[in-house]
Specification:
Blueprint lengths: L26 H10 L10 H14 L7 E5 L5 H8 L3 E6 L2 H13 L5 E4 L11 E6 L9 H14 E12 L10 E7 L10 E10 L3 E9 L4 E9 L3 H10 L3 E6 L13 E7 L2
Helix pairs in contact: 2-3
The protein binds S-adenosylmethionine.
Length: 276
Amino acid sequence: MNNKISKYRLPKIYEKGTDNIWTDPYISSRLLEAHLNPEFEGASRKKSFIDASALWIEQQFPVVSFPKVIDYGCGPGLYAERMAEKGYDVTGIDFSKRSIKQGKVSAAKKSLPITYIYGNYLTWQPQEAYDLALLIYCDYGALSREERKALLTNIYASLNSGGQLLMDNFTTKQLEDFKEETSWQIHEESDFWSEGMHVVFNRSKKYPQHTILDQAIVQKVDTMQVYNIWKYFSTKNTLTEELEEAGFTVQAYYQDVAGRKYDVSAETITIVAKKE
Ligand SMILES: C[S@@+](CC[C@H](N)C(=O)[O-])C[C@H]1O[C@@H](n2cnc3c(N)ncnc32)[C@H](O)[C@@H]1O
């Protein structure tokens, strides 16, 4: 029995929960369903957006100049497959076993030569160098300051000189309407968080450093799991500083990874950064 009352304590900033949604055996299956639902904006963006985004990426980073692509947090390969279909030599890394397995099965079915790596991109040491790195759908915002630094350093090291990074994140605009909330629900049947009967306590809290916590504490018959989902919101300046600190030179700003014009009032920011 690990139903400890101390699990309800408010965590310190960026403290990990007991489990992670992307690697949890049950929740990762629900997230994979979300990735593969073309109309659902959740684990991945909608199919129509990803199609437009992949097309824009191809125009900005032509395959002749950027033949080798590494997709950080590739999920089941929605971008990896589109890029491979356009002739790029694609590697995808993700720490969701389920997503990597799905990516491999799908690539084999479509005869796409994608290399999938099951691993943690915060610690992964690439064995080869790439021309274009992708970090898409605001994965960056889930990381602590130290993790963001480690990831950008790793991405920088994984690029050839002249190689570029395309990444996006949430902006502080989203913080303006944020409201702290606490709620709980009794579920008699399976849902996103668990199979069978369970109780979910949700808490949204504002922290310093442009950060919020979306927490779910899931209580089942004899277990209690804590999922701490951190969201760090960037500004144009903070994101630029963090990229420059890792050695990058910023090339361009956009609103999204489909090339929409940068706008200070937008809820996401996209940056293209170069390794000179
Ligand atoms: C929001 S999803 C985005 C997936 C994909 N980029 C897309 O747009 O379809 C984030 C992905 O990053 C993966 N991820 C998060 N942290 C990771 C880490 N430390 N190492 C490897 N993969 C990670 C998750 O498993 C998940 O597949």
